């Protein structure tokens, strides 16, 4: 039987990045077969190794975010470290980095230098604000970049300060763009006119791209959308509702046909003839009234009763799941959204599964998240033909 190794089998990626956004993109590529060599600073490694949550001394983000990677320690500030990197670039397809703008150029290993070594190299560059523009020199992290994007402005209650997402949402969204950008560049490089190139994204740009409704509404109507605790201005009814047994659910009717089905489920078909409710545009003018009617109706049912009824009528509703709910959910289990992998000290550890699902070349976990420098000898001897004596000298010089 043919061994399936993923659609990116044969692609070699040098992941020079740290923390979440760019490394997550590299992990996604690794999930689908790319060989990912994670280059880390000797002694300390990726700063994500020191980020919570923890179990004892073990960072619990690390297994899921660094799986399918090899770890090579390399001080890129040293001349010997730069030479090793250049040798690796000559044998690689992609470099992913998220140093502050100009850092690699200062060290003499910027894109212009690396493409002289390998004209087909693809370099993915992730910074807070991009490689160009008046803010390009600034340090960038996910939460400030989320605020800069306009996303934070929309969230919270009007009588309280805006709120940031409770996890690194923008970083993970950017990671998806990283994987998408690299895959698109690899495809282009494989065409008749293809070549290597540099890809540039600022953290804030990834979520800003998803808010076209803000851009065109302000351009055409001059409207500044203010924050709200849930969906508003798009459809009605929409929001968070509580069931009879005190569970929270989300219900949204994003089209008139969906509301028509909800009205039938509620036995309120009279609303379909009422000038306050018969189209989404008029329901938005009576948003609080519409939501109030739905909220009172939902309180008559338990969570499971409501789910069964609205599923029957084809109305989108979902419980607001905790992670405990997710672990117990049969759909998550059937989709393999949570999978188990080996860990050198924890034994077994559960991590998110691989998405999307390919019918012919599915992704898989080929190796667990590496310990710092775990693959130094394998990479240097197997790929670059360094001798044991040379490796020992690099260690003594603190290059590795």
TrEMBL record:
Which keywords describe this protein according to UniProt?
Transferase
Molecular function via GO: CoA-transferase activity
Matches recorded under InterPro entries: CoA-transferase_III_domain, CoA-Trfase_fam_III, CoA-Trfase_III_dom3_sf, CoA-Trfase_III_dom_1_sf
Keyword Glycosyltransferase assigned: no
Protein name as annotated: Formyl-CoA transferase
The species this protein was found in: Alteribacillus iranensis
Its organism's taxonomic lineage begins at:
Bacteria, Bacillati, Bacillota, Bacilli, Bacillales
């Amino acid at each position: 039987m043919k061994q399936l190794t993923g659609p990116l089998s044969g692609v070699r990626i040098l992941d020079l990045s740290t923390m979440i956004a760019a490394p997550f993109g590299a992990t996604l590529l690794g999930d689908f077969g790319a060989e990912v060599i994670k280059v880390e600073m000797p002694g300390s490694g990726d700063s994500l190794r020191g980020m919570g949550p923890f179990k004892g001394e073990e960072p619990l983000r690390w297994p899921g975010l660094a799986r399918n990677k090899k770890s090579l320690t390399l001080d890129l500030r040293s001349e010997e470290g730069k030479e090793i990197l250049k040798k690796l670039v000559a044998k690689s397809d992609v470099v992913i980095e998220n140093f502050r703008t100009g850092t690699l150029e200062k060290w003499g290993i910027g894109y212009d230098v690396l493409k002289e070594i390998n004209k087909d190299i693809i370099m993915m560059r992730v910074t807070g604000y991009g490689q160009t523009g008046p803010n390009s020199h600034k340090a960038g992290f996910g939460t400030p970049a989320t605020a800069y994007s306009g996303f934070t402005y929309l969230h919270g209650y009007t009588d309280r300060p805006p709120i940031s997402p409770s996890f690194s949402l923008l970083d993970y969204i950017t990671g998806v763009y990283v994987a998408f950008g690299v895959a698109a560049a690899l495809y282009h490089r494989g065409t008749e006119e293809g070549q290597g190139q540099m890809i540039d994204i600022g953290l804030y740009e990834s979520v800003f791209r998803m808010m076209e409704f803000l851009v065109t509404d302000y351009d055409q109507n001059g409207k500044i959308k203010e924050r709200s605790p849930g969906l508003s201005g798009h459809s009605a009814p929409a929001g968070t509702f509580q069931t009879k047994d005190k569970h929270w659910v989300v219900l949204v009717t994003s089209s008139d046909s969906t509301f028509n089905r909800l009205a039938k489920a509620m036995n309120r078909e009279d609303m379909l003839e009422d000038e306050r409710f018969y189209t989404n545009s008029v329901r938005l003018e009576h948003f609080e009234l519409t939501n109030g009617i739905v909220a009172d109706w939902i309180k008559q049912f338990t969570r499971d009763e409501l789910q069964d009824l609205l599923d029957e009528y084809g109305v989108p509703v979902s419980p607001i799941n905790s992670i405990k709910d997710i672990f117990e959910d049969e759909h998550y289990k059937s989709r393999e959204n949570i999978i188990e992998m080996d860990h050198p000290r924890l034994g077994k550890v559960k991590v998110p599964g691989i998405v999307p699902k390919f019918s012919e070349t599915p992704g898989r976990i080929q190796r667990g998240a590496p310990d710092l420098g775990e693959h130094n000898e394998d990479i240097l001897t197997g790929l670059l033909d360094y001798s044991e004596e040379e490796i020992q000298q690099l260690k003594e010089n603190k290059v590795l």
